[in-house]
Amino acid sequence: MPTGFAGLEAQLWVWMLAMIRPGAAFVAAPVFSAAQVPVQLRLVVALAIGIPATQAVAFTLPDQGLVSIAGAMLVMGEVLAGLALGFAVQIGFSAALLAGETISNAMGLGFASMVDPAHGVQSTALGSLLSLLATLLFLATGGHLALAATIFESYRALPPGAAWLAPDAVRGLVMFGGDLFASGLIIALPVGFGLILVQLVMGMLARSAPSLNLLAVGLPAALLAGVVLLAVATPVMADAIIAAFGRGLDLAHDLALGR
After folding, report:
1. What is the pLDDT of residues 52-86, one digit of tens each?
2. What's the whole-model pTM score?
3. Distance from C-alpha of 76 to C-alpha of 45, rounded to nearest angstrom
4. Which residues contact 173 (CB under 8 A, 6 or more apart)?
5. Residues 166 and 258 sit within 8 Å (Cβ to Cβ)
6. Going by C-beta distance under 8 Å and a sequence separation of 6 or more, which residues neighbour residue 134?
């Protein structure tokens, strides 16, 4: 074998290890995990983040290589660390989808479902709309760059071979799931509260005029009020969406620091 290729195999193992944590994070993180993002692009970006990150810390591969018990434990730690970082951001990002589902049910559009191409599941029309808005805001505010920087910083506190999260960090990630529902309701509050007032007015009309066809009058009124409120409250909802996935990025940064 030529001298220049003597360390090629060892270098390939290091490169493969470098792609594991960023690749696992991209599987769970928003935008990167979308079906429209090619797998080849994810691998290239994961390699671009992983190579300088692994070069910035000191670590050694197991003597038996990655195809061993010690190597499997090392890879498992990398996968769990990457999934935790991506999933933390995904929890905050999903608040927009939850808000869309809530508003759709209040407007009477819960039956108007469609396939969300970003998640590959059925969601309401407003859920897809707010999910698309969250994606644009995530990219416009540099959320994807913040996620890449967080993954890079995680190698300093959690180097390969010592990437196991502390129990308190895992508990904080689980408890952060409750923030998903709170953030979703906060995003939907400007429109949802107005729609509740419309429903109260419709209930009062139904009591005062029993012969009134509530379905024929209430549904168009709720739809019209919902469209107007969405147009008025979109800037406020956008700020709430940014705050929601911002908390997810903050949690991911805490996990990257080993907190």
Report:
1. 888 878 777 777 767 778 778 888 888 898 899 99
2. 0.81
3. 21
4. 84, 87, 88, 165, 251, 255
5. yes
6. 30, 93, 96, 97, 241, 245
